[in-house]
Amino acid sequence: MNPLDVFFNVMMAIVDALALRAAARQRPLHGAVTVALAIAAILFMALMAGALHGNAWRMMRLSAWGLFLHGTVLLAGAAVLWARPWRCGAALAALGALLVAGTGIDAFFIEPQWLEITRWKLPSNKLQRPVRIAVLADLQTDTLGPYEHDVFRRLLAERPDLILLAGDYFQAEPDQYTRLYAQLNQWLRQLGLSAPLGVFAVRGNMEDDDWTEAFAGLPVRTVERTESFDLGTLRLTCLSMGDSFAGRTVVAPHEADRFHIILGHSPDFALARQTADLLIAGHTHGGQVQLPLMGPLATNTRLPRAWAAGQHRLPGGGWLLVSRGVGMERGDAPRLRFLCRPELVIIDLVPESR
């Protein structure tokens, strides 16, 4: 917890105490208004504090503190105050406290490490044999622990023919990258990272210029500039970071009888009319927070909101796969996921039945 968080929470704890003290002296209905106004005031102050720092991520982080911590305290306190004079109100307040607290526990402590393996079978008449592809996007961590180790262990347990790493491996303080690269390199060496058709890694927008050190001496092809590779019946094009963000970059078509895959960090390159069979990207985190009936709150892409995650048929006939990633936004952002579990994607390319 940084100094801004400490200051904000101390000030809001005072607001909690004053609001509950006032509610205790009021009639229950008036007390309910006081509690509601206190929650609204806390959220407003969180937004203002973030705005004064000119940082949207801080705004979101302080709002999360306001809602999940202080909202729970105020609702739970109100439930205690109203236990006798207003049982119905006490029950509603207790239910609200449980709902808010439960959502916070899920978003901050459960979902961020509740890894899902998403499986997708894609038939094609360009294939003579099945090919299994593992896609890992957005590890995006500032520390390497049991969760990150388990991600790579489970990836290799799938025995993929081809491993595609879609960028954003770390998001940390500048002086931490060298240590993290060395630690990841040692892990991958011990785990024996490899695949029959190869392991390919593209750069994301969180890496520094030394990002390839994470894979130095390993059987991993790191790609800085847009480049294509022949992999038997497959053709793989790996995009530079800049080309993946450019919605006008069109990858030249290749042999019509060869299954063509394009890998980029950002999915924005899908805005151009690509002729490839399969486009693969990360970057969006699937929105990281999704709400029922609304979907992702933010997508960080120019693609339609519904395309922030999952598989989508493109107008040209190909497919776009956008991974929700395995990590989450760091730095000043609240470290949470809600209704948007992290994922490894396993794509089974199979010959089309005739």
Provide keyphrases for this structure.
354 residues, alpha/beta, Purple Acid Phosphatase, chain A, domain 2, 2 domains, six-stranded mixed beta sheet, 7 helices, elongated
Write structural notes for this entry.
By secondary structure, this protein is an alpha/beta fold. The protein has two domains: 3-111, no CATH class; 115-351, Purple Acid Phosphatase, chain A, domain 2 (4-Layer Sandwich). It has helices spanning 3-25, 28-52, 56-81, 87-110, 146-157, 177-191, 241-245; strands at 116-124, 131-136, 162-165, 199-202, 220-223, 227-231, 234-238, 259-263, 278-281, 290-291, 295-296, 310-313, 319-322, 343-351. The chain has a six-stranded mixed sheet, with no helix packed on it. Helix 5 links the parallel strand 2 (131-136) and strand 3 (162-165). Helix 2 (28-52) runs antiparallel to helix 3.
Distance between the amino and carboxyl termini: 59 Å
Coarse structural class? alpha/beta
Instruction: Tell me about the largest β-sheet.
Output: 6 strands, mixed
What is the CA-atom radius of gyration, in angstroms? 24 Å
Shape summary: elongated
Instruction: State the order of secondary-structure elements, H for helix, E for strand.
Output: HHHHEEHEHEEEEHEEEEEEE
Side-by-side strand order of the widest sheet? 1-14-2-3-4-5
Beta-strand fraction estimate? 15-25%
| Number of individual domains | 2
Instruction: List low-confidence stretches.
Output: none
Individual helix count: 7
Helix content: 25-40%
Tell how many strands the DSSP assignment holds.
14
Second rung of CATH, namely the architecture of the largest domain = 4-Layer Sandwich
CATH topology of the largest domain: Purple Acid Phosphatase, chain A, domain 2
Indicate the mean pLDDT.
93
Assign the CATH class of the largest domain: Alpha Beta
